[in-house]
Design goal:
This protein is of the alpha+beta class. The chain has helices spanning 45-60, 64-80; strands spanning 11-14, 18-26, 29-35.
Length: 83
């Protein structure tokens, strides 16, 4: 991990086309601005962790028989040309 100190209004450049700006500093909160191409996905770390946990819970709640029946119906529809 690279640790860099920045002051208000300073920036960090990542590669050729990503810049991170220090917008404001208030007590224990730092606001940053990120300029990046649209194809670059930017997510908060805690959001990714929440999604992973929700996915794990969802997998635990899957009813295998319902999933098998659903798969069977989809395959039957494919073979008969129904959508």
């Amino acid at each position: 991990m690279l640790v860099i100190s920045r002051k208000l209004n300073e920036k960090i450049k990542i590669g050729e086309n990503i810049e991170i700006y220090i917008i404001s500093i208030d007590k224990n909160q730092v606001k940053i601005g990120i300029e990046a191409p649209k194809e670059v996905t930017i997510l908060r770390g805690e959001l990714i962790e929440n999604i992973k946990e929700e996915n794990k819970k969802a997998v635990k709640n899957i009813n295998i028989e319902n999933l098998k029946n659903f798969s069977k119906v989809i395959n039957e529809n494919k073979s008969t040309g129904k959508s």
